[in-house]
Amino acid sequence: xxxxxxxxxxxxxxxxxxxxxxxxAQKWISSRQYCLIKVETVEGITGWGExxxxxxxxxxxIEEYVTPWIEGKDVRNIEQIHDDLVFKLTGSYHSYTPxxxxxGVDIALWDAYGKSLGAxxxxxxxxxxxxxxxxxxxxxxxxxxxxxxxxxxRIVDEAKGHVDAGFDALKNKIGFQRHPDFPWGWxxxxxxVRAIREAVGDDIRLMTDANHAYDSATARRVGKxxxxxxxxxxxxxxxxxxxxxxxxxxSELDTPLAGGECWAFEHEFARVLDAAAVGITQPDxxxxxxxxxxxxxxxxxxxxNVQCVPHVFGSAIxxxxxxxxxxxxxxxxxxxxxxTPNPIxxxxxxxxxxxxxxxxxxxxxxxxxxxxxxxxxxSFRMT
Length: 383
Ligand SMILES: [Mg+2]
What we know:
By secondary structure, the chain is of the alpha/beta class. The protein contains 13 helices and 12 strands. Helix 2 (78-93) runs antiparallel to helix 3 (99-117), helix 3 crosses helix 10 and helix 6 packs parallel to helix 7. It starts with 5 loop residues before the first strand and ends with a helix. Residues 209, 211, 235-236, 261 line the site of magnesium ion.
């Protein structure tokens, strides 16, 4: 019987300072950093993956825990490796399972498996339903500004730029009250969305994301006003653990809630879906448990008649892997297309993925369809 043994697995930390820091409700973002995963097989195939979050933690778990366990296993047994790793990590860490580690390993295994067969991962995940996917522009982050009017004007100009570039769906950030450097509140949040709506018109699909900034009362207050602005979804209004809040808000508001970037594995999404707590699920391939779990969540979401629209905010690896699963998702998913300046996302792939109007072609080259430029990789590597 043919086998494809894993010879080595390596965590590769990348980091790049941003020219201008950007903010969301939770924090400033002044650099972009990623823990990439490189798997090599005895047969000479290389697979790439990516873990969500800081390098710290991901790298150590890979090096000290995953490496001695995974070497020699057969890449083709991806789902078994995924499930066994979840079991082992849960047993070791008790109160949480490092899902970003599982994700990075899982993506790298799918990439290697696809390359070994000369097939895109989307074919191995059950087949492609589409060769292009509608993209929405994510951005509209907050930057240093003297006052709200200055920031609002800058964000409205950015929105118009995305529309000029061909996008017909946009997402912005709200939740000023949680950030100490932005002394505004929910009224300014609503005013910002209103200003974008007025600037781009009613034909543009508009989503807004609070990055779990609100308590339940403020979320309801804001959500009621977003209805009048025709907002397509209201993302992460409250903290991810507050499933009961999600459930009540999702039933009370006309605007559906979206969430999932802070949830992992199909069992967490099952709880959310069973509670009818969101109208859109947003698993991230780099944090929800890789392509295996994201595909499972998409299938589960479809069973509950809920659209899955994966969260994407990573390097070229995350973007490529997300496109492969997007090819397979039932219904009418969109690609979250990060438009913030990010050299690691833009330069790491030999053929960068770009939008063509409001859609993005899904690569059909082997694996996740991303060829890494080794010189660029080295230039971003953390020492
Ligand atoms: Mg979000």
